[in-house]
Each structure stands twice: as C-alpha cells, then as structure tokens.
From TrEMBL:
Its main location: cytoplasm. GO terms for biological process: regulation of DNA-templated transcription. The lineage of its organism: Bacteria, Bacillati, Bacillota, Bacilli, Bacillales. It is found in: Cytoplasm. Residues 131-230 form the OmpR/PhoB-type domain. One of its GO terms (cellular component) is cytosol. This is Response regulator transcription factor. The keyword Hydrolase does not apply. One of its GO terms (molecular function) is transcription cis-regulatory region binding.
Amino acid sequence: MVEQIKILVVEDDNDINQLLCNIIRNSGYVPQAAFSGTEAMLYLEKEEWDLVLLDLMLPGMSGEEVLATIAATNSTPVIIISAKLDQQTKVGMIRTGADDYITKPFDIEEVSARIDSHLRRYQRINKLPSMKKLTFKDIEIDLEAKTVSAQGKELSFTAREYEILVLLLSSPKKVFTKKNLFESVWEEPFYGDDNTMNVHISNIRSKLALVNPNEKYIETIWGMGYRLKS
C-alpha cells in the first residue's frame, strides 16, 4: 500500500482554503483544512505531516507563532502563503524557519509546482542510500530519525537547514558554492540572491553555537562558498 502524502492547509479564508485543498487533491495528495492557528496546532500535535501551507494573519494563534512552534519541534517543511509583501516579513519568516514564501494573490500552477518541488526534495533527502548516520566532529545526523545532535544534545532545524547540513556532512572536504547549495536544496535556478543562503547558514551556525560556542563547524571560503571547518 502506497503511503499517502498529507498536507495541512492553515488558512482562515474559506474560499482560499478550498482552492489550496483542490490544488493539493489535483496533485494526488491529501489535504487537511485548518482555519485558525489553534486548530492547526491540534492537527500538528495529533499526527505528522509531509508539508504545511501556512497563512500568517490567522484568528487565535498567529501564523508566526505556529511557524515558530513547528521550527522548534520538527523538520516539517513549511510554505508561507501570505498577503504581506514586505521584504522584512519574508526574511523574518525564513529566519524563523519557513522553507518558502508565496505572496497572494498566487498563481495556481506556481503553488502546485512549489508543493511538488518541496515534497521531492524532502523525500529525496530522507532516502539517502546505504547510510544511516553522518558525523562530523561532535555533530551526528541520524538519517532514519531525521535528527541532528551536537555534543549529545538534540537540536531543532528546519527542513532546509537540515538538508544543507546533510549536504555538507555528505562531502566534508568539498567547497559548496551558494549556487551549489541553493540549486541542490531549493531545486530552483540560482539568480545570485545571496541573502536567502546567508540567512540559512547563519541560522545553522547560531543553533550549533548554542551547544558548543567554542567550536566552528562551517567556514566561509570567500569568493567561493562554504565547507565544513576541519
């Protein structure tokens, strides 16, 4: 029996929620509608999801609060779908743990393509062949449990942060350009926007520094990219 892919749709506007659910059904996935942040948390606590589509302006618990909770507890990919257009909000949501940001009004084909892209990437990274664990210094990644620990303490990373770490640990001596990392993780062409990658690398460094502030794990090779610091 093929396991169904389940996507949680958190959107308080009934028409938009139904439209997103229809996009998901037409792609062969199973949607679950939630109309408030509080309702979304009930679904998130009850079962695991392959992807979350999340509006920011929600009744009760805000989308920002829901995102922060997801980012702190698991690596489920989150796509923000919001009418907020300002760059500050977009960067803030990526820093908090969002994996993508789509602005309203949205194009149906674009939403469908983004969903497919995130699910392919998430499934690919969880099916690395012949390896169960990756280690570097005191970092250990359990590829089966999808967990990351440093100095024996489990850390919480977003789906994209996790994928970046897996790539780096898979080739510890390789220098990854920003283009390498972006196109491997996002599966989209890289157009030279350094900010997205800089934010994600900064987040990874900050989380690792919380458990071992005296160790440097990722070094910047100026003019080239990033690699693990030996």
